[in-house]
């Protein structure tokens, strides 16, 4: 308002002076001056001077306001700030074309900013949910980005951002890869061993040196935790090696005895009978091993078809199938399962679990020992339990008994038949059912195996 009044006074005085100058010229050149009413002339002069000053001051203020609006809009555009407001001027305004050009630039800028915001949101979502850890290290050795997965894998905090990477990362192999990447500007890939929260990890690490913007480069580090994959691969390799060894033993025995028989031993009745019995025993062992391997394979592809199952019927069938060995060892087997206990479950897993638990309790029991079989259901949880008074398992070996082909009784392996896959089959079935298995054992006292299976899975 002060500026407007100031401009009005300036323009009014200028108009008044111009009018007075005009009158002075008129007076000197006119012959009718005596007829002029000077009071009216003065009033008219002041009126036109005031009116002209007001109009010109208003137009000047309007132009200043328009320029201020344009400058403010240009500042917003310079600061990359999203603002959808447009500069609205009439077509006859002096700055109309300039306002239209600024509006067009703002429209393009707004769209560009929205695209950048969408891309940033997509990138942040991708980084947050990637199964791969991501680090970005600047040329000044500063860690500029770390996602949640990388923080978990390396045991770091998200607050580590903007700190020197070699003050944060403790893994020597990873530090060496980063140093090479920053120095050589070449991509790299290695498998490294790392420690995180006291756990050993195997990481597949890839480094990429790339341009982030003009004359600015950074090193991208991708971390893929392959610990489980490596463990699975090692387990598969061990399984193939162990299976090959276990299969080779009976096949070698069968082949050797057959060659001996064909070489003439078949003519001796006693030798022939002995060799045929050995061949039959090794064949049964081979068949049992093959059956267990196939069971493991089938369990991985098992489809659940539930039906009402009477647990007592299954346990009694298994006990009857072991009747010969039970009598040989003079074992007392007590089946505590209620005859009316029925569960809605798949038959094969239940049979496999009970069969392995009971047959192991028979095989590894002592002479005149005892076996107790239990089952009960509570809150949709099935608990199966088998107790024996057998050899027992040491605390050191209890953690390994579920490994494939692992046998506790190494000194009596040839006396106690088995493939070493029974407990592996149980573990596999229980894992698929989201259940648990626990071992309570003492050497020379006995073993209690407890399996818990959720019935609503």
TrEMBL record:
Residue ranges of domain Histidine kinase in the record = 242-457
Q: Name one Pfam family in it.
A: HisKA
The record places domain PAS at 119-161
Single GO molecular-function term?
A: phosphoprotein phosphatase activity
**EC annotation?**
2.7.13.3
Catalytically driven reaction(s): ATP + protein L-histidine = ADP + protein N-phospho-L-histidine
One of the record's GO cellular component terms? plasma membrane
- Provide the transmembrane region boundaries: 7-26, 38-58
Q: Which keywords label this protein?
A: Kinase, Membrane, Phosphoprotein, Transferase, Transmembrane, Transmembrane helix, Two-component regulatory system
Where primarily located?
A: membrane
- Biological process GO annotation list? cellular response to phosphate starvation
The subcellular location is: Membrane
What protein am I looking at? histidine kinase
Q: What taxonomic ancestry is recorded?
A: Bacteria, Bacillati, Bacillota, Bacilli, Lactobacillales
